[in-house]
């Protein structure tokens, strides 16, 4: 399967660089896989689209201010926490950060490159309180195609964020407001939460011509016993499980055995592409993804590549907004 099979042309003016004033006012494309039809809505129409037969599953991770500037020309990007002092990091410029490289920021944080793994620097930090330093001096790491600085950094967080650890937002959840969530619950729609800390596994570009040669970077997650028991019971009752976002899909599919979930925590490097047989989910809420991305491959696996590319062509023709702050689709 070729990487070029997942490419498409997107006019730059359709890349959403700023969020809408009201999260739930984004557009929503609904795709039905069996009749293969596409209809168009507003995201808050989920109140009418969904009913008590559906269960929404959210990723409640919280984005950390992972970009730390050492100087005007040097910065580090915290990709993954290994322990309280050691992080896996991207650095810029890379040639300046060889093994043994030491640096200091604001006379508070000291760092040393202790290893290099697949281009990532393993950095050991020394600081009285690393978490406080990151929260004080770090910046929320917006995707590179977003050029404008956010007036409110919380717009790159879901309203239900809880556990710190991501370096990118689970963007399908950005459309939900507290009011919309409460309305859905009042209608009898169940909600459950998992945690996956978004890292390179989600947004690292595929560089191999043959996608089967791509190696996913692992990401940490947690799916607890209570959530497992609830979701398995809902499944037995015939309710439809609708994950919000591809990160939620990856957790649920990583933790399914014989059609039922098992509680787990740890790392997942699951790579879902066309041909994959889904084990637990019945639908998906997601955004419109970058060309040649593993996210686009996952969605193509769920709804077929032909149907997804038909939907993307229609979205472009109807001038949907794309990527992190863009519009959404719901697939049944």
Descriptors:
alpha+beta; 332 residues; 6-stranded antiparallel beta sheet; 29% strand; 5-stranded mixed beta sheet; 21% helix
- Summarize the helix and strand pattern as letters: EEHEEEEEEEEHEHEHEHEHEEEEHHE
Question: Roughly how many Å is the radius of gyration?
Answer: 20 Å
Assembly status: single chain
Assign an overall shape: globular
Helix content: 10-25%
Biggest beta sheet summary: 6 strands, antiparallel
DSSP strand content: 25-35%
Which spans of ≥5 residues are poorly predicted at pLDDT below 50?
A: none
Strand order of the largest sheet: 5-6-7-10-9-8
Helix and strand composition category: alpha+beta
Number of E-type strands: 19
Report the end-to-end length measured between terminal Cα atoms: 25 Å
Number of helices: 8
| Overall pLDDT metric | 95
Could you explain the architecture of this structure?
- A hairpin with a 2-residue loop joins strand 9 and strand 10.
- It contains eight helices and 19 strands.
- Helix content is 21%, strand content 29%.
- The mean pLDDT is 95.
- The chain is globular.
- The protein has helices at 46-49, 130-137, 178-186, 200-203, 225-236, 246-254, 294-303, 305-317; strands at 27-32, 37-42, 54-59, 61-63, 67-69, 75-81, 86-92, 102-105, 109-117, 120-126, 163-166, 190-196, 219-223, 240-243, 256-257, 260-261, 264-268, 284-287, 328-331.
- A six-stranded antiparallel beta sheet has the order 5-6-7-10-9-8, covered by helices on one side. It has a five-stranded mixed beta sheet with strand order 14-3-12-13-17.
- The two termini are 25 Å apart.
- It has 332 residues and is of the alpha+beta class.
- Helix 7 (294-303) crosses helix 8.
């Amino acid at each position: 399967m070729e990487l070029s099979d997942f490419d498409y042309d997107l006019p730059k003016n359709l890349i959403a660089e700023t969020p809408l004033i009201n999260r739930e006012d984004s557009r929503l494309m609904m795709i039905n896989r069996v009749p293969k039809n596409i209809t168009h809505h507003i995201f808050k129409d989920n109140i009418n689209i969904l009913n008590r037969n559906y269960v929404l599953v959210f990723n409640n991770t919280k984005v950390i201010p992972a970009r730390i500037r050492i100087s005007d020309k040097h910065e580090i990007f915290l990709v993954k926490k290994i322990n309280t002092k050691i992080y896996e990091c991207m650095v810029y410029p890379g040639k300046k950060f060889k093994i043994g490289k030491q640096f200091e920021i604001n006379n508070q944080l000291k760092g040393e490159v202790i290893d290099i793994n697949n281009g990532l620097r393993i950095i050991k930090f020394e600081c009285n309180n690393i978490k406080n330093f990151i929260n004080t001096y770090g910046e929320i790491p917006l995707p590179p195609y977003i050029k404008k600085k956010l007036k409110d950094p919380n717009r790159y967080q879901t309203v239900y964020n809880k556990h710190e650890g991501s370096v990118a937002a689970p963007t399908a959840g950005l459309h939900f407001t507290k009011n919309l969530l409460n309305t859905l619950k009042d209608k009898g729609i169940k909600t459950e939460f998992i945690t996956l800390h978004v890292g390179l596994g989600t947004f690292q570009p595929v560089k191999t011509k043959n996608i089967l040669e791509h190696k996913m970077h692992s990401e940490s997650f947690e799916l607890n016993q209570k959530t497992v028991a609830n979701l398995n019971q809902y499944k037995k009752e015939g309710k439809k499980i609708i994950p919000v976002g591809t990160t939620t899909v990856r957790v649920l599919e990583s933790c399914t055995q014989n059609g039922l979930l098992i509680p787990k925590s740890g790392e997942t490097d699951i790579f879902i592409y066309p041909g994959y047989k889904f084990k637990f989910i019945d639908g998906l809420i997601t955004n419109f993804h970058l060309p040649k991305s593993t996210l686009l491959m996952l969605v193509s696996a769920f709804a077929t590549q032909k149907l997804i590319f038909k939907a993307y062509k229609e979205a472009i023709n109807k001038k949907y907004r794309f990527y992190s702050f863009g519009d959404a689709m719901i697939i049944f």
